């Protein structure tokens, strides 16, 4: 029988880990299990590629109150609703990115701590992406001088090479779907967010767990001792985890928390 490990913090992905896109609902049994973990003194931290605005639109904060959150793949960190880290993009770079995107008649969502907005009129790829992730359509306006932490480009990969020539030299394109990618001058990694959060909380990686299902979760797995891949994750992701739990519709998070004797 496995000895009960000391786990003080759990980092949890949202899409296909807590939220089932096939059935368009949360895994409520797993949310209940996470709440039980919190009652047992374990911190629950969301760790997602989403910005905090879309997490709110999805409705997750109506179902649970996480102790903190890692958003935009580590770009923004909050603990008890207080910001503890945020990488911001300079006004000069925001203007250069805006010019590059509009040059190719594409669109992008500029996201900051207080607002998000689209900068273009072409909504073709935007609608596909927003429908899948159940996001509300933001206003359309031009960037002026807002505080921006992340930029999401809507467009297919055929434009990637051309865009690289017009983007600021230190910017990268991180494509995550056929219709969208992140644009930033830092590599956004959940693992970096996890490390920053653990340092802030003064918790050892040996006392932390990460649960996820996709490529962006690999760096998160590598940053903690207890890594858990969902049963619905691709095999390439499962290879990076120390434990594979059930699929989301079989309440994989709940099963993992029981396996590690957290609840």
Characterise this structure:
The protein has 263 residues and is of the alpha/beta class. The chain has two domains: 149 residues, HAD superfamily/HAD-like (Rossmann fold, 3-Layer(aba) Sandwich); 94 residues, Hypothetical Protein, Haloacid Dehalogenase-like Hydrolase, Chain: A, domain 2 (2-Layer Sandwich). It contains ten helices and 15 strands. The strands form three sheets. It has an eight-stranded mixed beta sheet. A five-stranded antiparallel beta sheet has the order 9-8-10-12-11. It has a two-stranded antiparallel sheet with strand order 2-3. It is globular, with a radius of gyration of 18 Å. The mean pLDDT is 95.
Q: What tags apply to this protein structure?
A:
globular, alpha/beta, Hypothetical Protein, Haloacid Dehalogenase-like Hydrolase, Chain: A, domain 2, 10 helices, 2 domains, Rossmann fold, eight-stranded mixed β-sheet, 263 residues
The CATH topology of the largest domain corresponds to: Rossmann fold
Low-pLDDT segments: none
Q: What is the tally of beta strands?
A: 15
Largest sheet: 8 strands, mixed
Question: What top-tier CATH class of the largest domain fits best?
Answer: Alpha Beta
What is the alpha-carbon Rg in Å?
A: 18 Å
> Which structural category fits the helices and strands?
alpha/beta
Strand order of the largest sheet: 7-6-5-4-1-13-14-15
Topology as a string of helices (H) and strands (E)? EEEHEHHEEEHEEHEHEEHEHEHEH
Give the % helix: 25-40%
The number of domains is 2
Count of DSSP helices? Answer: 10
CATH superfamily of the largest domain: HAD superfamily/HAD-like
The average pLDDT is 95
User: How big a fraction of the residues is strand?
Assistant: 15-25%
């Amino acid at each position: 029988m496995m000895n009960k490990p000391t786990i003080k913090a759990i980092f949890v992905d949202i899409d296909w880990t807590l939220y089932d896109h096939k059935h368009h609902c949360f895994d409520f049994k797993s949310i209940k299990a996470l709440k039980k973990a919190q009652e047992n003194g374990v911190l629950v931290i969301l760790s997602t590629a989403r910005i905090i605005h879309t997490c709110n639109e999805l409705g997750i904060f109506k179902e649970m109150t996480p102790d903190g959150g890692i958003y935009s793949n580590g770009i923004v960190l909050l603990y008890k609703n207080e910001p503890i880290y945020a990488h911001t993009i300079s006004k000069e770079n925001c203007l250069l990115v805006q010019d590059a995107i509009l040059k190719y008649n594409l669109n992008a969502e500029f996201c900051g701590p207080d607002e998000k907005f689209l900068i273009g009129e072409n909504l073709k790829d935007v609608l596909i992406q927003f429908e899948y992730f159940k996001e509300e359509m933001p206003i359309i306006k031009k960037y002026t001088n807002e505080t921006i932490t992340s930029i999401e480009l809507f467009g297919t990969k055929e434009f990637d090479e051309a865009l690289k020539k017009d983007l600021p030299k230190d910017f990268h394109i991180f494509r995550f779907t056929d219709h969208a990618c992140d644009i930033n001058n830092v590599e956004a990694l959940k693992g970096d967010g996890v490390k920053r959060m653990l340092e802030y909380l003064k918790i050892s990686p040996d006392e932390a767990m990460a649960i996820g299902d996709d490529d962006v979760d690999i760096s998160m797995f590598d940053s903690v001792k207890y890594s858990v891949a969902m049963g619905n994750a691709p095999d390439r992701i499962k290879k990076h985890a120390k434990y594979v739990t059930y699929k989301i519709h079989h309440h994989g998070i709940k099963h993992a928390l029981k396996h590690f004797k957290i609840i």
